[in-house]
Protein 1
Amino acid sequence: MRKRTLFRLGMGTVAAGAATLAYASLVERNLFTLRRFDVPVLPADTEPLRVLHLSDLHMMPEQRRKQDWVASLAALDPDLVVVTGDNMAHPGAVPGVLRALAPLLDFPGVFVFGSNDYTGPVLKNPFSYFLPDREYSEGAELPYDELRDVFTGAGWADLNNARTTLKAGGRLIELVGVDDPHIARDDYPSVAGPVPAAAELSIALSHSPEPAVLDQMAADGFELLLAGHTHGGQVCVPGFGALVTNCGLPRSMAKGLHRWPDSDAWLHVSAGLGTHPTAPVRFACRPEASILTLIPR
């Protein structure tokens, strides 16, 4: 009798695990969700400004459902589109990325790249993400210059270790960004400096939300820090949250809007819209885009 009970328990555990994996791989990773946040960074008595934040598409050529959903976000009529990297997951992904983003290219936009814009994914042990000093593995080179040319050709500003100002929503916005700190391509000192007094709003971008970089941006007076990379943990435990962020960011900040410590800045981390192709699962962490409505302080 005891052996039979243990057998039933074991089979029940296996069945529950299989059902969870099926849900995570077939259902939740396709439950694209729009998050909405109010961010109090504007001067008093000014009109709101809407920022659409996209990250971590990890696009594969055949992912037409994701492409159609992202393209539909143009109906939100954002004042500014911000893309924080990891757009591709395949050497042939550029047409799919452009199919998704083409309707958004008509809006003012800025972007930085992530590691998976430069090189493709490789098969890896998912438990390696818990190792702080794990070696980074590069896959095949991706056509990042082609993607960059399309973005800049549409008028979007390339903020990979760059700084600019632009008009959006009738406001003069100071913007800065770094190339991906996750693979040591960042060079914030080359673009550092206080936000000018003439700026009506200031925004800083980094694909990976590394605290050392965010601290410098906040110290320069940038009011809104935008990043991706974490996938919100990708596989989370209900009631506990992300198990890992794959960077120096605390798990409690793995996604969503947070006040950056010891500063006046706000940080928004997008949980992103994709997954690593060799681990196409999400659990308790839906793929997402965010519309940030910037409002008076």
Protein 2
Amino acid sequence: MEAGVVVDAGVSAGVTAALASVTGLVDELAGVVAFPPAALDGPTRVPDADADPLQESSAACLDGLGLVARLEAATAALKVRLVAAYAEAADAMEGPAASAYEATAREVSKVAEVACALTIGERAASALLGETHALTTSLPAALNALQTGAMGWQHARTVVDETAGLTPAAVSALEAHFFGPDAGRGAAPGELVPARFRRKLRVWRERHHPESLEERHAKSVADRRVEFSPDRDGMAWLSLYLPGDTALAVWNKSTALARGLQGPREPRNLSQLRADIAAGLLLGSANQDLGDVPSPKADVLVTVPVLSFLGITDEPAEIDGLGPVPPSMARRLVANGANFFYRVLVDPRDGAPLEIGRTSYRLPEALKRWLRMRDGRCTFPGCSNHSLDNEADHLTAWQHGGVTGISNLGQACPKHHRLKHWREWTPTPATRNEPPGWISPAGRHYPAEHPDREPPLIPPGCLPVLASPLEQALLTRLAA
């Protein structure tokens, strides 16, 4: 009980102070943007009775922008305080974890709860919880600067990022150097753009880091990875995080090969040549022309209107894990023979997928495909894991009376499938065409993200359209 009182008192004081800072800045902003200004002693200038009204209005707007920046910083500090309060309260209610397995389950559930409350991804929520813990435990001066609006949220995140891996003594020394009473050398952190502030922090960090760069590099090599991010217009980003010398060698080789292809008859610029060469090398193609690389030899789930697939219309197709793509790309995948290319034809009346499956005790392949079409991705709030990496799950378990039908099925990525069994995250019922929603351990309901379907375009005269007797009667009445 005493521990709970201490937690509540400390949390309440921090949240109250952050809220007071926000309230004070809102009041100050209201006075500045009033026309004419409510106070003669504004934040940076005093209105002159003989001054040009437009000039004073312009000056008030600039003063207001400065206050908005401080208000955004104070609001970010309030968010940090609230996230810290939630995490502390959740941990206090749970008590000590009985095992590492239980601790992991609690952490995953806590991250998911914050992600759903803020409508952000779980990676961002996990980062926010980490930043919150660092600011409230190891960087009180930086958090105070954020709370008063002396620096912005990007500055605070930079401090957290650049102090990661430092010993507590080194973190305290860095904070004292930039935020302590003697931190008067040069511009204050909030007076520098975040990128310039990061450079200053990094220089200090490298000079005073207790661990050698050689040791840190050896640890960072373990984090090498490839990242994929879909983009608009049927494009995507592919990023490689590699040791610096390896990345530079890849860049230099692609540049050298690209320069070798340049000439008066080559229409592509250097950047385009690099991209085509890199794609060809990764896919094992000797041809360096755009589009003349091997097609993906993996499962590909594509939804395409039938008339678009036949080349009659130009409506976009959709590739699972990528998003909308031009129909020419879908047709090329079929022609070049991806291993499994599921052509999902859609109903010309409402854009819904046409039925292709049946129910049975075991989950047949047709029903799995139908599930992938209906859900599109992991159904957990905010998760974008695409369907081919997910697992089919009975919403109500078979041993508890659940049936193997589309309305009792949902697909979840392995992490959220485990979370459903670890903690009290409960999926809501699904329907034939709508995926399930979720209810969190805190009792919050997050509805399913319904697909935004549209009826496909049908060119005039392409398909016979028979009007019902009611439609014919209405048309006759209107024409009269």
Protein 3
Amino acid sequence: MSDERAPEVRNETAWRMFEADKASRNLGMRLLEAGEGTAVVEMTVGPLMVNGHAIAHGGFVFTLADTAFACACNVEGGGVTVAAGGDITFVTSAREGDVLVATAVERVVYGRSGVYDVTVRRGEEIVAEFRGRSRTLSR
């Protein structure tokens, strides 16, 4: 699937799941878009999210990417889909006050498994690249 594809269908499953996601919402994350296999989530790096080097703790950047991944892979009629694994590469650091946007795109779904790429940006600058592997649970 192309990076340029726009969500053609509003993914109500993702919106409902995000509304119930206390962890992400309590970190100030906002779901901006969710379509079939895509999602965009935003988060501002807060004062409790910085580490001893005064930069955003990588765990919070990972959580942002993971949330966008979860919203992209949970689609209408698809059952409950969870992470089977995820990897992140930090390209540059983020600082308190930075607004980060994670954009998730489905790469492939095969059977009950899938692969999704998430790019985390500050403006136009890439902060991190995340690859998530999903698994849809048996019903």
